[in-house]
Amino acid sequence: QTVVTQEPSLTVSPGGTVTLTCASSTGAVTSAYYPNWFQQKPGQAPRSLIYSTSNKQSWTPARFSGSLLGGEAALTLSGVQPEDEAEYYCLLYYAGAWVFGGGTKLTVL
Amino acid sequence: QITLKESGPTVVRPTQTLTLTCTFSGFSLTTTGVGVAWIRQPPGKALEWLALIYWDDDKRFSPSLKSRLTITKDTSRNFVVLTMTNMDPVDTATYYCAHLRSSGYDYWGQGTLVTVSS
Question: Most C-beta atoms within 10 A of its C-beta, which of A75, B18, B27, B57?
């Protein structure tokens, strides 16, 4: 069974920069996994931030960026704002099916 | 403006079959490349991808749940139906549907909470 792994939790100071990662149990993540990133706040549906590795939705703030880093998908937040405190999920494509990571709880402190 | 809304029972009994409907507007499920997926989230836990149906009626399922899932679409009335058989209390979750385009799940419904309990 394929497992997608994210950091369980990260803490960042306001104005700082943080990178969340997304690793696959099958090996290096490439663009063929079409990494998606979502933000979810308590009581809300997930909101799409990034698709196909680095493409932003029209509503995605400029401080969010997606990339591939060292065989993993990555989401970088530059100039973190208090409202960025949330759970972040990655989603990877595996030959037809998709698998979510376990999520990263980002605390802005 | 794309919108999706999930509907279905709030409570199902163990061993029963769950039927959920995703009613959408603002796009057509006959447009090349478009799909509608189902995702769930148990209380306090992570998201889990369940199933996807494409504009051409291609269907994809989570390998771990494939034997229990069915997904269909009605393109004239703009809805997608997910059925899950043999429900168990561990299937208690908020179920979401989402629009897929260009390998991105851009628009999501608000979700519907389904509790499995006798």
Answer: A75
